[in-house]
Amino acid sequence: MKKRILILGSTGSIGTSSLSVIDQFPERFEVIGLAARRNVDLIVEQALTYHPAAVCLVDEEAAEEAARRLPHDGVMVFSGLQGLLKLVECPDTDLVLNALVGGIGLLPTIRAIETGKDVAMANKEPLVMAGRLLVQEAMEHRVQLLPLDSEPSALWQCLRGNGKATEVQRILLTASGGPFRRRSADDLVHVTLEETLHHPTWKMGRKITVDSATLMNKGLEVIEAHHLFQIPLSRIGVVIHPQSIVHSFVEFVDGSMIAQLSCPDMRLPIQYALTYPDRLPGVVKGLDLMQVGQLTFESPDWEAFPCLGLCYEAAEMGGTAPTVLNAANEVAVESFLAGELPFMGIPGVNRELLRHHRVVDDPCLDQIVEADSWARARAREAVNQKK
Ligand SMILES: NC(=O)c1ccc[n+]([C@@H]2O[C@H](COP(=O)([O-])OP(=O)(O)OC[C@H]3O[C@@H](n4cnc5c(N)ncnc54)[C@H](OP(=O)(O)O)[C@@H]3O)[C@@H](O)[C@H]2O)c1
């Protein structure tokens, strides 16, 4: 029987790559639902190609337009956040692939878990906001949270068959270093949006491209890996690896290290999450080590890229601190993309919010949602003051 997949964020970078992986395995997968924010043209095209039972556009006007363009007897069209949750409840789904960007992915992830579906997570922000809760919920409902982000996927692959907690010494996440590797903090004051969006090795959505330039993305992955693999923060490290060939390492207590290497192409971790536990020949070509030639590693510059340290700090504080840091960062990145905040304003806003937040320990979902709203409002005030 085919695995029935629901793709949240189908019009984005990960969403479209996921559909291109699915195209390679028509006998294995069926697309049962699609969701995005407002890209009507693309979601209508996708719906006419994959014939899902339902689609959702969170933007109401965009959803009305999609409903006009799609055959009325063919596909249901939902709208708004409620529509997204209704889509996720669809009982004929085997796997929800969450490729939304940002905190909007939290409630659909929880609803997917509550209704008994495995979730493949590209959308790292919910794991940062509410990692403990999501992992607990997944355990209670006996569903799997499958990593789809390239570095957590690499760790997952390295730990496969090697996952005894007592045998793992530490994990090391690799980062390309982004477009500003080796630039000083003083130098970063003047960088432009255009330079920031020019990532040296990966082609991704705008938010994660900015997060890669500030190293916030790596910090978010540290928190994500901490929850997914239940490894203490003190045993999670970050190493800069500009070639983006080694996607992460696991070091074992006997001194052995296992790494996962491949071309920097997101279709590989996507395929692994979709076909798991099988490995199949796929779309990504193997690695030509002679052509790669050299693999180099260096330490991150914590001073020039303070977002990385702030993520560790928030994760150590625990409770609602990572929720607040994530929300502050989303607002700061949006403001940077809108030309309202300079590049180094991003760590500035993030730091300010973390300092002003009174942490709620072991928060329930309502407290997480409340902390998230508080932080977004405060971060907007902070941006306005810095304008
Ligand atoms: N891109 C990568 O290579 C990569 C690698 C690892 C992890 N990730 C993670 O994967 C996630 C997606 O990244 P991406 O690069 O694919 O992002 P992206 O290209 O910006 O796509 C985001 C998707 O989410 C939808 N969306 C955005 N805001 C929404 C909202 N408020 N409500 C409903 N849908 C919304 C977008 O719909 P519209 O098109 O209609 O706006 C689009 O389909 C992020 O969490 C990122 O950190 C990405």
TL;DR?
The protein contains 17 helices and 11 strands. The chain has 387 residues and is an alpha/beta fold.
Provide an overview of this structure.
By secondary structure, the protein is an alpha/beta fold. It is 48% helix and 15% strand. The protein is built from 17 helices and eleven strands. It has helices spanning 13-23, 40-50, 60-69, 80-89, 106-114, 125-140, 150-159, 185-188, 193-196, 206-214, 216-229, 267-275, 289-292, 306-317, 321-337, 345-356, 365-386; strands spanning 3-8, 29-36, 54-57, 76-79, 95-98, 118-121, 145-147, 168-175, 236-240, 246-252, 257-261. The strands form two sheets. The chain has a seven-stranded parallel β-sheet, sandwiched between helices. The protein has a four-stranded mixed β-sheet with strand order 9-8-10-11, with helices on one face. Helix 14 runs parallel beside helix 16 (345-356) and helix 15 (321-337) packs parallel to helix 17. The radius of gyration is 20 Å and the shape is globular. The mean pLDDT is 96. The structure holds NADP nicotinamide-adenine-dinucleotide phosphate. The site of NADP nicotinamide-adenine-dinucleotide phosphate has 28 residues, from helix 1 and helix 10.
